[in-house]
Design a protein that fits this description.
Largest sheet: 5 strands, parallel
CATH architecture of the largest domain: 3-Layer(aba) Sandwich
Strand order of the largest sheet: 3-4-5-2-6
Keywords: ATP-binding, Cell cycle, Cell division, Nucleotide-binding
GO molecular function: ATP binding; ATP hydrolysis activity
Protein name: Cell division protein ZapE
Order of helices and strands: EHHEHEHHEHEHEHHEHHEHEH
Number of domains: 2
Strand content: 5-15%
CATH topology of the largest domain: Rossmann fold
InterPro entries: ATPase_AFG1-like, P-loop_NTPase
Length: about 350
């Protein structure tokens, strides 16, 4: 019996993860790859001064938490929060925004602080209802929101209202996105009547621009690795420990299954998976499916699960002018992450 035969193969299409509000709240922490992120472990690119400046500003922001209290003769005063109650990290993909956001979360005082993607917070509201979600988050010292990219007016107004209530209760906010807060929705929607909501939300934040090039592309050049059909089976399990679990699905089967699972549960699809296999990858022309793949790849990247794929290169899947449309930054981020994940599998053409 070969070593490869000791790995377990599963199909993601047979998984139907579920989560309740308590599980969502318990999971509002940085993803595993940033479990130990610190400002000291962030490596600013010397060619872009804004990266080092961001570390300084965010460190000051984290250290300014607290309330001003009179201390009497022997009392001590805690530093009062200064400036705006939130910081918005604006910049392209791959400049380390999530690392910085996680570092802020780790450094900020607790015990109640939360870190999650935009979709996780909207899912929490969906699971609990708005008022109960506000109650669940009220009292947190810090709420970190990663990938703050709004795709519909309803979510925009929901998050504007939620953040407004939390800020009023004393919670501080930090968020990342590839688009400045005043520009969310530009190039995506024609609904001008909700721009006022976006602008009101923007007023909560100090915008911190972080320039730079994609660190993943600095470390890995080229495009996604494509595995031949003959090499696929061996590549999927090569080098893995005995009893490691790998997934094996066709691209179309995964696409169909993602339509039946809420994006907030995509992380559950890949829980325990050591390597993800996709067969017969092809170009996408349906934007809804393309955005579902983007959300899925975000969770795969968070979990750092390498990908082995056959068919066309994964960085070529966004067709029909998608890379020139309003969601181009999402697609470009996904491409960057898929290149890194296919190289992480260690498979050569």
């Amino acid at each position: 019996m070969t070593a490869a035969s000791t790995q377990r193969r599963v199909s993601l299409t047979e998984r139907t993860p579920s989560s309740d509000a308590h599980a969502i709240i318990a999971g509002l922490t940085p993803p595993p790859q940033f479990a130990n992120a610190t400002f000291e472990s962030y490596r600013p690119d010397p060619d872009f001064a804004s990266q080092a400046e961001a570390v300084t500003i965010l460190t000051e922001f984290a250290d300014s938490f607290g309330i001003q209290r009179g201390g009497g003769l022997f009392g001590r005063k805690k530093k009062a929060p200064v400036g705006q109650p939130g910081i918005y990290l604006d910049g392209g993909f791959g400049v380390g925004k999530t690392h910085l956001l996680a570092s802020l979360w780790h450094r900020a005082p607790g015990p109640r602080k939360y870190f999650g993607t935009f979709i996780e917070y909207t899912s929490l509201v969906g699971a609990l209802g708005y008022q109960q979600a506000v109650q669940a988050l009220t009292g947190a010292t810090l709420i970190c929101i990663d990938e703050f990219e709004l795709d519909d007016p309803g979510d925009t107004m929901l998050m504007t209202r939620l953040l407004g209530e939390l800020v009023a209760s004393g919670t501080r906010i930090a968020a990342t996105s590839n688009t400045p807060p005043g520009a969310l929705g530009e190039g995506r929607f024609a609904a001008a009547d909700f721009l006022r909501e976006i602008q009101a939300m923007s007023a909560h934040f100090r915008t911190l621009r972080i320039d730079g090039t994609d660190y993943r592309r600095r470390a890995v050049t080229g495009s996604c690795i494509v595995t031949s059909g003959a090499e696929y089976s061996a590549a999927l399990t090569a080098g893995l420990a005995d009893n490691a679990e790998v997934s094996d699905d066709t691209f179309d089967a995964l696409l169909a299954h993602l339509q039946t699972v809420h994006p907030s549960r995509y992380a559950g699809l890949i829980e325990g998976i050591s390597r993800l296999g996709l067969r017969d990858v092809h170009e996408l022309t349906d934007q809804t499916r393309a955005l579902q793949i983007v959300a899925f790849i975000d969770r795969v990247y968070d979990a750092q699960v390498p990908i082995v794929a056959t068919g066309i290169a994964l960085d070529q899947i966004f067709g029909d002018g998608m890379l020139e449309g309003g969601y181009r930054k999402k697609y470009q981020r996904a491409i960057s992450r898929m290149i890194a994940l296919t190289h992480a599998a260690g498979v050569q053409r």
